[in-house]
Amino acid sequence: MPKKSFYPWLVWFLTALFFFYKYLLQFSPSVMTSELMAAFSVTGAGLGNLAACYFYTYLFMQIPVGVLLDKFSPQKITAGAIFLCALGAFLFSHATSLYGACFSRALIGLGAAFAPIACLKLASVWFPPRRFALIAGLSMTVALTGAVNAGYPLSHLVSWFGWRDALVFLAIPGLVLALLFLVIVRPKKTSPGETIEKTPYSIFEGLKIVLSDKQTWLLSLYSGFAYAPFSVLGGLWGVPFLVAAHHLPRAAAAATVSYMFVGFGVGSPILGWLSDHFGERKPVIYFGTFLALGAVSTIIYLPNIPAFWLSMLMLTLGVGISGFLLCFAMVREVNQLVLAGTAIGFMNMFDSLWEAVSEPFIGKLLDLGWTGQLAENGSRLFSINSYHAALSILPIYYILSLICLYFVHETHGNQLIGEKKAAIPPKVV
Predict the structure, then answer these.
(1) How far apart are CA 328 and CA 99, in angstroms?
(2) What does the alpha-carbon distance between residue 47 and residue 401 come to, in Å, rounded to a whole number?
(3) Is the confidence at residue 3, as pLDDT, over 60?
(4) Which label site among 161, 288, 303, 313 has the fewest CB atoms less than 10 Å from its CB?
(5) Cα 316 from Cα 292, distance rounded (Å)
(6) Cβ-Cβ contacts under 8 Å for 137 (sequence gap 6 or more)
(7) CA dihedral for 161, 163, 166, 171, sign (positive or negative)
(8) pLDDT band at residue 119 under the 50/70/90 scheme
(9) CA 307, CA 391: separation in Å to the nearest integer?
(10) Which are the contacts of 176, defined by CB distance < 8 A and separation ≥ 6?
(11) 194 backbone dihedrals φ, ψ, rounded to 5°
């Protein structure tokens, strides 16, 4: 393959590896919940707040990250962000107080905030628009392997070496990736007939343009509701729920949750390709949302599901959730290309907001239903009824997401710029 055509894929792959690393760190607490509760003497709500510290900085940084990547070359910024993630993991492994642990998780969130936006921004720079949904889907496939490795393999590392040493092992590849990114990735050079668009707007002008678009708000609301169940089940409460409700050992529960990540990783490029091929976004998103609603409701409420079918339901849930990724293509299409980073950052902020709110909120609901049972290490044990009540918010999220989606305009995979996008009438699917 000629160097010219190979290099964009190399840039994409390194950025996708950062996306992979982001998910690996984000979901790592899911296999060490009891250890963290015992180490820092926290309740379910306290554990939720500890995990959510990641999302607080992640949420705060979304729009600034988008603006920075629109205004400046992303190479050094992204390398520095990867280093922050690795540093946060190392500090978390050595935390001796809850405050230190919260600071470390917040530092990881600060660096991780750059991963999805940098990946999609660089895809906008190095690849033609017609490939964007497919590249975004492939990016999620690579990223979700990080979530998979945060399940079953990481649970064994925790069992063999303890949660602290397991986190040290996670810090090392981050340092290596930061160095590789700094050495290999270069700004895209212009050539005759080829230009790179940089935003002509000031920071506040660009923000005003993005925030004044109603479709951007609707897509962001949908994205937040549709993605939150993925984070809740994959990040903190999925493994303990399966242990309590379906009587699985922790390693088996982590492996079962991993099927959701596999489904997401498989579904992302397939649904992205289908959407690009047929020139339709909303029908594919509707399909995924209804699929996810049915799967998550069955997992939560149906008792005595055999292990095989529970894994298949998790796989189905992941495929359904992956349809939300098309919203990133749509928000790019309803905004100017030079503001792609800002628009994607704004949407990702909503995903982070729902993640930051949902995990501690569900933890609080679990605490309200706690019957006083304790595990051998002193952590709280929650009943099946408590999990059913707390996780009922997830199907509600999907119902709200469908309401938002109804009012979203179909883009047909076309880039709608400036006043052109206002002329597109709504299409009800």
Answers:
(1) 35
(2) 27
(3) no
(4) 303
(5) 7
(6) 268, 269, 270, 271, 272, 273, 322, 325
(7) negative
(8) confident
(9) 20
(10) none
(11) -130, 125
Half-sphere exposure of 245 (CA within 13 A, CB side): 22
Question: Residues near 306 by Cβ (< 8 Å), separated by ≥ 6?
Answer: none
Q: How many CB atoms lie within 10 A of CB 126?
A: 18
Is the distance from CB of 363 to CB of 49 less than 8 angstroms?
A: yes
pLDDT surpasses 50 at 138: yes
Per-residue pLDDT at 192 exceeds 50:
no
CA distances, 418 to each of 56, 131, 194, 333, 347 (Å):
32, 22, 22, 11, 19
User: Can you spell out the DSSP letters for 227-245?
Assistant: HHHHHHIIIIIHHHHHHHH
Residue 33 lies in a domain: yes
How confident is the model over 102-112, as pLDDT tens digits?
A: 999 999 999 99
The dihedral built from the CA positions of residue 341, 346, 349 and 354, taken in this order, carries a sign that is negative
Q: Cα(389)–Cα(366) distance, rounded to whole angstroms?
A: 8
- What does the pLDDT read at residue 194? 44
Q: Which tokens go with 234?
A: 């994959």
Q: Which residue segment(s) compose the domain that 253 sits in?
A: 3-423
Q: 428 lies in a domain?
A: no
List C-alpha distances in Å: 196 to 74, 121, 192, 210, 306. Answer: 13, 12, 11, 20, 54
Can you say whether the dihedral through the CA atoms of 312, 319, 405, 58 is positive or negative? Answer: positive
CB 181 within 8 A of CB 74: no
Number of structural domains, the chain? 1
First-last CA distance in the chain:
42
Report the C-alpha gap between 323 and 319 in whole angstroms: 7
Q: How confident is the model at residue 421 (pLDDT cuts 50, 70, 90)?
A: very low
Listed in sequence order, the residues at least 6 apart from 239 whose beta carbon sits closer than 8 Å to its beta carbon are 30, 31, 33, 151, 250, 253, 254, 257
Which residue, 30, 305, 10, is CA-closest to 146?
Answer: 30
Question: Does residue 110 lie within any of the structural domains?
Answer: yes
Q: What is the CATH number of the domain that holds 300?
A: 1.20.1250.20
Query: Can you tell me the distance from the alpha carbon of 337 to that of 69, in angstroms, rounded to the nearest whole number?
Result: 13
Residue 429, domain member (yes or no): no
Length in residues, the chain: 429
